[in-house]
Specification:
Largest sheet: 2 strands, antiparallel
Helix content: over 70%
Number of strands: 2
Low-confidence stretches: 1-11
Strand order of the largest sheet: 1-2
Family: Belongs to the binding-protein-dependent transport system permease family.
Order of helices and strands: HHEEHHHHHHHHHHHH
Subcellular location: Cell membrane
Keywords: Cell membrane, Membrane, Transmembrane, Transmembrane helix, Transport
Shape: globular
Protein name: Sugar ABC transporter permease
Structural class: mainly alpha
InterPro entries: ABC_transporter_permease, MetI-like, MetI-like_sf
Length: 314
Amino acid sequence: MQPSSINAGTAAPISTTQRRRPPRNREALVGWLFLVPEFVGVAVFGLFPLLFSLFLSFCDWNMVGGLSAIHYSGLDNFKAMLHDSKVIAGLKNNVLYTLYTVPISMALALLAAVIIHSKVYFQSYFKVTFFIPYISSIIALSAVWSALFHPSLGPVNRLLTAIGVANPPKWLADTHYSLTSIIIIMIWAGIGYQIIIFLAGLSNIPQDLYEAADIDGANERQKFIRITLPLLGPTISFLVITLIMSSFKVFDPIAFLTQGGPNQSSTVLVYRIYEEGFQNFRMGYASAISWLLFLIVACVTFLTWKIQNKTTHY
């Protein structure tokens, strides 16, 4: 037998085995191929805009001039923010909006959830009723509230006049009440979601604890403070963090109802970003404000998370 024929006879099966891929590796490869569109989407629509906005925050760019109009300006955009009265007013209004919206809406939602969970018939009806504003368009809700808050023809001021208020506020047209009006609208629009979350938390509290408290002679207030609130800790922690994050992103009702006015009394950072980026086309300055907002939200969320981790028992 010739040596060349021996090698030819034994080499063919070894080469076929080497080319054959194990089934588990092929399944993994197919799985990664299915994930490729997701990775591409995250890179194109998430990662690239994030990094590009970071780059633009150090540049002066009028979007109308095209990419050739991008000029590096260092920290000029961040220095300009320190002297921008609209940015300072927006930051102040954002803080006030958060300080009022988060605790008031959570307190009202918790009260409503406890009542619905324990003492009300037709619980499903109330859940749906409170949840409808949350799933409705915020623009449609703002249009309704715009009619309700009309200075002379609105039902709210007519009611106040009927009960003896001589000079009712002009609400959205008043520098002292425009932000308060936005806060009222957003609390009403979002309270249904918080009620549903609180109801889910209340349903997970074991009834044995309340029965043991009844045997020990605890009243309703003691049971609420000693049992309900501590066991709702994870729910409260979740709502606090998500509400703080969403409160710094409020935009729709302000753009529709007040455009930040009157006299910047209801402007916020997101609306200031919109003004600079899509009205004045100063994308570099708008990106710098965006990163200021991102850092503020990140710091507040991190501090809230750290504090609640020490006080919440999971």
